[in-house]
């Protein structure tokens, strides 16, 4: 039997970008120690008080079908959080709870795009973005950025495709680059969306990890609340990656239709997980800053290490748990360097090419291991790059 072109074509006929990561995992399974600087997984686990609340909720019986849109309690909590942080009036009717941010991205594009519509996204991009767009039947169109612009999108590149598109997906703070979009960049994006009647889908899962500048949600800009879907998640802000609890914030009428979609697909998120998410959000800003602190500290550590050499360049690291490193001075592609580093030193990083053509000649490093081990791995990486550059 032949499978659908939708499912077989999710990667567009090429790699899904995870090849180096998968090789590293195979090496580990075979008994080879590998220092993993690949995925955005905290080196701490979900905090014990959150787990205790989750356990108590489950033991109290919240293990049956939960309300498909999310519990009213969690939806209100998310709405209050968004309103407090953006100033945009938000109620539970603007919120749908989803099984993680990835499900929210898929649902948002299902709402924004019909099959055959062009869906824009910024390159470099998180590796699942193009497949998500293909999965809803949209035609992915990358908007290229440039390293010399610190990967901030340019108006001319967006305008070249905006007239033919239905939606635009952005991510700030950005995975993989660590760049935070400036107020000017977001104003430009909002203007183009209004002028071209685009839905804006704003992936804000790293909103609590900002080291320079500020996080500005484009939903708060003039005329944008009715054309913006905001994707959020407990994964990065509260180290709850495995709990799979996220949300979409958008116009009430759109959320109502997305609830219908959830009824026919995910059928909601377990109630005990939602209760724990509500408890976690109730811990406030200080708790979220505590979760983010290791990445801020390691970013400063990395800046010091990289200042001691001239081969590896650091893209302005303003947010998120990643560094984007320019290794073009080695004369190697990001992919070739990543495989070489893995084979030679058993250090796994993600090639820039896994995140699009704009990041060619770069690698992404996740700041997700203990400080001293991270410093040692980064120093080894720099020494390896210097050796390859001199060869």
TrEMBL record:
Its cofactor is pyridoxal 5'-phosphate. The keyword Transferase applies. Residues 53-380 form the Aminotransferase class I/classII large domain. Keywords: Aminotransferase, Pyridoxal phosphate, Transferase. It catalyses: L-aspartate + 2-oxoglutarate = oxaloacetate + L-glutamate. This is Pyridoxal phosphate-dependent aminotransferase. Transmembrane segments: none annotated. It comes from the Bacteria. Pfam families: Aminotran_1_2. GO terms for molecular function: L-aspartate:2-oxoglutarate aminotransferase activity; pyridoxal phosphate binding. One of its GO terms (biological process) is amino acid metabolic process. InterPro entries: Aminotransferase_I/II_large (IPR004839), AspAT/PAT-like (IPR050596).
